[in-house]
Design a protein that fits this description.
- The complex is a heterodimer.
- Chain A contains 14 helices and one strand.
- By secondary structure, chain A is mainly α.
- Chain A folds into two domains: 12-93, no CATH class; 104-307, MetI-like fold.
- Chain A is flat and about 70 Å long.
- The two termini of chain A are 24 Å apart.
- Chain B is mainly α.
- Chain B has one domain (91-319): MetI-like fold.
- In chain B, 72% of the residues lie in helices and 1% in strands.
- Chain B has helices spanning 9-12, 28-61, 67-72, 81-87, 90-123, 126-141, 144-154, 161-168, 183-210, 215-223, 228-256, 260-265, 277-286, 291-319, and one strand at residues 4-5.
- In chain B, helix 11 (228-256) packs antiparallel against helix 14 (291-319).
- Chain B starts with a strand and ends with a helix.
- The chains are: A mainly alpha, B mainly alpha.
- Strand 1 of chain A pairs antiparallel with strand 1 of chain B.
Chain lengths: 317, 323
Amino acid sequence: MSAATGTRPGRPHTLTGPGAAAAHGGTGRKAQAKRRHGRVRLRRRLRRLPLTVTALVVLLCSVFPVYWMVLTAFKPTGDIQSETPVFLPTSLTLEHFSTAVRADGFWIFWRNSLTVTLGGVLLALIVAVGAAFAVARMRWKGRRGFLLMVFIAQVAPWEAMLIPIYIISRDTGMLDRLSMLTLIYFMITLPFTIVTLRSFLTGIPVELEEAARVDGCTRAQAFRRVTFPLLAPGLLATSLFGFITAWNEFAFANMLIIKNQDDRTLPVWLSSFSNVFGTDWGATMAASTLFALPVLILFLVLQKRVATGMTGGAVKG
Amino acid sequence: MTATVRKNPVVESPPRPPRRRPLPSVPRRIAGLWPYLLVAPTVLGAAFLLAYPVLRNLLISFQYFGMRELIRGGAGFAGWDNYREILGDTEFWEVVRRTFVWTAVNVVLIMVLATLVALMLQRLGRRMRMLVMSGLVLAWATPHIAATTVFQWLFQSQMGVVNWVLVRIGFDSFEGYTWFAHGNSTFAILVVLVVWQSVPFAAITLHAALVTVPEEIYESARTEGASAARIFRSLTLPMLRPIFGLVLCLEVIWVFRCFAQIWAVSQGGPNGATTTLPVYAFQVAQSLHRYDLAAAASTITVLLLVTVLIAYFRQMYKQEAEL
């Protein structure tokens, strides 16, 4: 894949050191130390070259599939089918996007996905704020047990529960219902929402709340006026991660929506792309791009938070 | 009800003169109920959508539960019959073996690559690091199903870019090679796909753990004359170990139970070459309508995962000292 784009590494200034090191003469320990230091620096600079090359290879490997998806979506069909792949955009077209958007039910699936995702995430958010508050700010019997339950739920093997949940939905008449899917997404996103909000809450000093209460606020008022605004960034971050998880979910959407094909969500529809588009890779890539777009935008917005380590949240996009 | 407000921990332990603080406006008895009311929805949700399915799954695995029972109900007790049937099936053991191979190959690749990338990130300059990190985040953010379509396109036999590159660098046998017609190559593509999706999370997390070591410590170790290998062994590795353990457990869990990618790319095929345990359970339920056998397979999957989970929780409780 490394031959794919023309970017070859080669930072000219990494190769400047030899003259500088040799210029230092003199005897004595100090000069020797200096010379050694110069050599070390030179060696370090030389060592940076493979490092830079590796970094570019890593960058290329991680970016190329996404780049290829977007590029294919914009390429004219002739370029897609050409004998030699066209790596750089020459002429662009929106034709594939219009094919994808005009595909049967695209907007319905889009809307279904959005409804289910937003419903599940909002529900999880509301419930999680309460639970996180109880865990982070109150002392009660069973608190540790509750936390353990949340941690277990966070790594619950959902894939192993497809069958019982299918049977339960069938028994309760919830099969082929988007509301069942919403409930499941609520439960999938809830644990890590609680865990993350809890850690955000512990980061906000209790004294602030106490001060407000000394000044005559009730507990609820103190929370609403003091803590909640400080919690807002945490709420935003967790809900975006929840959004991504639910937006991506495939297994349950695939299992629980069977008869009513109009109630399918985007991932399920996209997974059967060959039934829809056949070998029209341009349209398939356009549909994939449209599906990935909200998530990619959210991640770019969130990048700083992601990069500073969501270690506690254990989130996988 | 012993619930009281958790204040400053220092204030809490020694008996101090009562602070002048307005008494709670709600009667004490109700105030004590508050935490329970707040966590009630979570507990209810977990009971209905987690505990109940797990128990129901266990129950079904001890019943005769096929298409007829699904529609009419009245499933009869089967004892250990389902487990006996599934454990006596050579195909099942083949699937178990494949699941372990799948998990091992993926997790080893993910952890090795992620550690290398994390160490590399640490050594990069600021701007280059941000660039590489953005690339990693991009790969991480790509939805799984979108990634499956992209990889199917990359590995297309006729117009796929991978075949073109392979032919270009001299592997002429890949001219028009149909990757998805062969078991091993489909398996390999799925591994590449899962590794590609998983390395960013692991690498970024490990990198975050690495940068918690202050640069001065490395500096002083270097001036003391410690070799790079020594620094890695005595400084980097111990710092990395706890978070490494956590990431390792999470990756094992995620890879082991991976379903969406496999199902979307190959549905367990060709010829069952990519059927892992979750896929197997789904197939048994979906196409054979043997819900009892599928439930037994799911139970076994959960039991296998529990061992990993226990390791994960021990590691996490070490981390979360303040729990």
